[in-house]
Amino acid sequence: MRKSRDRVSELFGQLSTRPRFYCDMFPAKGGGLARQVLNRKMDYPTYQLLVADDDEDFRQTVCEIFAPFFRLIEARSAEEAIELVSREVVHLALFDMHMQQLTGLDALRHLRSLHIVAPCIIVTADYTDSLRDDAEQAAAFSVLKKPVTRRDLVATVARAVETAYDDREFTHQLLCG
């Protein structure tokens, strides 16, 4: 039991610069020890989330939602997103479908042509079965219809992280945060 407590202290003793809060009990990795830690800062892998939308208000709202959990990269257009991806590691991308010149789907296809396999979520006010099929063919993780609820957006991003990176603790935190 002493070793388990020491391991928990080791895991939770180091404080990160951003707050991370566990909202309930969950099994620890590699054992049956359950722990509850409330209002403690945590170290997590730093995932980078690209948010590309020409609507500044929507982009800022999305960034406010995910700022406690991700390093954020913002783009005002698909072209800017493509440029940023060439310089930055991106673990997950959210693309608005309709931007100035290129669409979010165009940006997704470009990322795939560069062999970037990060999960990409398309957000659109003009959801159609045809768009869903095109997005699926381009290997989009999901297509969400605007206006999207915070709950649906967070749940979709959490599912994308868990599917791509098998990070259940981070997913749990994202859903509870």
Features:
177 residues, two-stranded antiparallel ribbon, 7 helices, globular, Rossmann fold, 2 domains, 7 strands, alpha/beta, 5-stranded parallel sheet
Low-confidence stretches: 1-42
Radius of gyration: 18 Å
CATH homologous superfamily (4th level) name of the largest domain: Response regulator
Number of E-state strands: 7
Helix content: 40-55%
User: How many domain modules?
Assistant: 2
Question: What is the CATH-assigned architecture of the largest domain?
Answer: 3-Layer(aba) Sandwich
Tally the helices: 7
Description of the structure:
The chain has two domains: 2-42, no CATH class; 48-167, Response regulator (Rossmann fold, 3-Layer(aba) Sandwich), CATH 3.40.50.2300. With 177 residues, the protein is of the alpha/beta class. Residues 1-42 have low confidence and may be disordered. Helix 3 (78-87) packs parallel to helix 4 (104-113) and helix 6 packs antiparallel against helix 7. Helices cover 44% and strands 16% of the residues. Helix 2 (56-66) links the parallel strand 3 and strand 4 (71-75). It has a five-stranded parallel beta sheet with strand order 4-3-5-6-7, sandwiched between helices. It has helices at residues 2-13, 56-66, 78-87, 104-113, 129-137, 150-165, 168-176; strands at residues 26-27, 34-35, 48-52, 71-75, 92-96, 120-124, 142-145.
Brief characterization of the structure:
By secondary structure, this protein is α/β, with parallel strands linked by helices. The protein contains seven helices and seven strands.
